[in-house]
Structures are given as structure tokens and as C-alpha cells.
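An instance noted here:
***
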Amino acid sequence: MNLRMFSYIRNIMRKKHLRKMEKLSKKRKITVHNFDTAKTMGVALLSTDRAQLRSVLDNLVKKYNLKITFAIYYPEKKLPENVGVYTDNVLFADSECNWFGKPANRAIDKFTNCEFNILIDLSEKACFPLQCLVAASKANFKIGNSHNAQLYDFMLLGNSSSENFIMNIETYLKKINCNE
């Protein structure tokens, strides 16, 4: 089988898997949260985004007293040596994904089973492993960019940087009143 045929089959499997996960995701109970009502937040992002986002996210933690857990995807064969060990965060690379790109390890399962009040997907373009992670998540309120509208409960349009995306989320979530 040549590489072109393999890519074709892999893409069909990816689309089929995402449709299945989207249907399962819609069965969860959606609860709208703003930063005042949320206590926990999950953040899914590509490794290239993480350095510049740390200060912005640290400010959110200080301002709103949130517990943030990261799922960071490295689109490489192996994790870099200098990553270090983070107890609450999930770090994964291509080697921890199956043949069509679905992430598969215990840490990822733990992340997706955690019922975060808010889950934010900070990927600026479609990234299949992160899409799988968001689709499988049991988070109450999923927020993301416009690259896959079916995955999110709240979506922002545009091609802004991750820092601007977070600031826009903060602006809109401040305007949402949640009655518990």
C-alpha cells in the first residue's frame, strides 16, 4: 500500500472517529460557566503555543483563583528532553497516538474524564489529536476557535493569536451571568 492510500484511509478513519465522538459529546450535561463560577479549567494546546501563554494563564489563575490543568501536544515522534515532569499536566507526542492519530494513554484518559468547569482549546488550527481530546472530554463548558464548531459550546471566530484569544474569552465570559 502506498503512502497516498494510507493517508486517504487514515483521513477517513479520523473523520469517522470525530463524528462518533461529537455525538457522544453532545450527550453530556452542558453547564455554562464564567470565570467567577468556575473552579477548574482544562487547557488543550500545541507545544509551540505554551511559552507565550504561561504569563497570561498565570494572571487568570491569580485573578480568578482557578485550578488549571494543561494537555500539551508535541507534534513530534518523542517528547523533548528538556520538558521536565509536571504532575497535573498531560504531555504527549505522536508516539502516544494510534495509527490514525488518536491519543491513547492513561494520563490522557484521566484528563478527558475530569469534569472541568471550563475547557479551552487554544489550538489556532485544526489538530486531530487535540480535537480527539476535546471531543472525548467530559468538561461542562467547552470553548474553542472556529476550526471545528461541532466540538464547542462557545466558539470565537477569527485568526487572532492565543493571547488575544484568551483575552477575548475573558471579555465574553465576564459578560455571561450564571445563575446557579
Q: What stands out?
A: The longest strand covers residues 67-74. The chain has one domain: 3-175. The CA atoms of residues 123 and 142 lie 13 Å apart.
